[in-house]
Structure formats: structure tokens, C-alpha cells
Design a protein that fits this description.
11 strands; globular
Length: 175
């Protein structure tokens, strides 16, 4: 059985996250610099091995003071832990959809995670490159990864929610 290697096409991919702010609204952020790969033995990617890393310094929430706070020791501590990593990932076909199971490391904490995946299919671009598309979604508890900073407003609302939504649109290019 031959293995096909694929890498993330960063110009056609995005990694976003969403966090509740003051319990009443949502703030969206993204990682602007990331890399990843998959190794598949089947055309439908069932059983593919997946790995991924994002640079903490590339966080962008459209507000520079908040970005600086997220990079600080209160949250990701980018100086000590410059990347978050997803390793030992396996894409498993689950009916018409997929699950991506693997180990997410943020700071010095590694926990198993599962993300729901929608496989968009495979196509050839105008330059002869074979591409595959995926939409990923899941949730993690930021506190489980040591991202515990919070504040309480005068009215008793927390500033940052614990549940973080992960939303990614990934396009892989066949090597």
C-alpha cells in the first residue's frame, strides 16, 4: 500500500478560534502562520496520519493590545512556548463525515482532542496541482491547557469564556 504525502497550502487555508467575551458576544482570532501535513494510504483519507503546528506570535484578533496579552505569560507565553502543536492525529471516517483524533499541546500541556471534519473532496487546480479540502470544527477548554487568566466585571460577568471553538478551513496540496 503506497503512502501519499500532502502539505497544508497556507494561502488557501485558515485556522480560527472563537472565545466568549463578557458572556454576551464572541471574539474571533486566527493564526496567520502555521504548517501541517497528512500522509494518506487511501483516496478518501480514511486513516490518514495528520500533524500540525501554529506559531503563537502569529495570533491576530484584530486588536493589538489583546494580541499582546494572548502572547504573554497570562495566556500562551509565546516566549517560552512558541508553537501550539497537534500530533499523532488520525483521520477516521465516520459515516459520511470524519473525526480527527490526536494530541493537542498548548504550552506544556498535552491532551487528546477530537475535531469534526467535513471532507470537501479532491480537485486539480489550474496549475496541475492536486488539492484536497477539509472543514474542521471542535471545542477545547482553555483552562485545561493552563490558559487560566480571567477577570470579573463589576456586574459579576467573566471577561473570557472557558470554551474555545476551533474552526479551520484546510486545503492540502499533494506532494
Amino acid at each position: 500500500m503506497s503512502t501519499t504525502k500532502w502539505t497544508i497550502d497556507p494561502t488557501h487555508s485558515e485556522i480560527n478560534f472563537k472565545a466568549k467575551h463578557l458572556v454576551i458576544s464572541t471574539v474571533t482570532g486566527k493564526f496567520k502562520k502555521f504548517e501541517g501535513e497528512a500522509e494518506a494510504t487511501t483516496e478518501d483519507f480514511d486513516g490518514a496520519n495528520v500533524g500540525f503546528a501554529a506559531d503563537i506570535e502569529s495570533i491576530d484578533t484584530n486588536q493589538s493590545d489583546r494580541d499582546a496579552h494572548l502572547k504573554s505569560g497570562d495566556f500562551f507565553d509565546a516566549e517560552k512556548f512558541p508553537q501550539l502543536k497537534f500530533a499523532n492525529g488520525v483521520l477516521v471516517k465516520n459515516g459520511g463525515d470524519y473525526l480527527l483524533k490526536g494530541d493537542l499541546t498548548i504550552k506544556d500541556t498535552t491532551k487528546p482532542v477530537e475535531l469534526s471534519v467535513e471532507f470537501g473532496g479532491v480537485a486539480e487546480d489550474p496549475y496541475g496541482n492536486t488539492k484536497a479540502g477539509f472543514e474542521l470544527e471542535g471545542k477545547i477548554s482553555r483552562k485545561e491547557y493552563g490558559l487560566t487568566w480571567n477577570a470579573v466585571t463589576e456586574a459579576g460577568s467573566v471577561v473570557v469564556g472557558d470554551q474555545i471553538k476551533i474552526l479551520a478551513s484546510i486545503q492540502l496540496v499533494k506532494n
